[in-house]
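Hi R.,

Here's the chain you asked about this morning:
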Amino acid sequence: HGFRSPRDLQDARSSAEPWGWATANKWLASAKIAAASESVRKCPEIAEHVAALGLERVAVEASGLRERMDGWRLPLVFAHNDLSNTNVHLNSETGVARLIDFEYG
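And here is the predicted structure, written out as tokens:
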């Protein structure tokens, strides 16, 4: 294995699916399947909590965010690819979500 030049990495960026978006889309798809499951429908309390998640709105917001970010042409950066729900923090008073990483913070 050899090192890739910055030019090689820049070329790779345009053809590769960003890992974070692929993972987030898988999570959202799984959440939608779970939300529609019979076990959720049978329990009104759980169904209420699931409905409060607003998964359809999350999907619309995520799609819009991705469209806006795709136009930014951000530079390729190194990442360790451990996007986790524990790295997403929501301030319930302001509604601001922050992505953080305790390992490399």
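One quick note: The radius of gyration is 18 Å.

Cheers,
M.
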